Amino acid sequence: MSLKKIIFLGIIINIISLIVLYLTMHKYEKEISANCMNCSYFQDVLINGLSILIFPIVYISSRFIANKNISLVIISLYGIFNIFLAQIGIFNSRVASWSSFTNMEMITGVFLEQYLSLILIFGVFILIIKFIFLKMR
Can you tell me the distance from the alpha carbon of 23 to that of 114, in angstroms, rounded to the nearest whole number? Predict the structure, then answer.
């Protein structure tokens, strides 16, 4: 895959990830963030979404993994993992910081609340990446 396609794919996945993060954690919009008391929900999503940097894994998997299907799954799983970490960050700053959640309770709570959206976005990532891999040769 060319560098132009890698950058395009990374940008698309980052934009989709931020949209998913905003929509899936929207119910905590009215909560006050412990990390930034004056920040809006959108700013909190952007701050937590900065961890969704997918360019290195896209580049590495497209350059060094010969099997495109394995590369496709690795990129998608990496994107899902980063979305999950950002969801945990938002939950932590807006809910868990004001209560007495342990780390395990926080991870479990976010996972049980968001697993359907994570599965759905995994499928969307697979379709988008497959389209870019196959259609943009």
Answer: 11
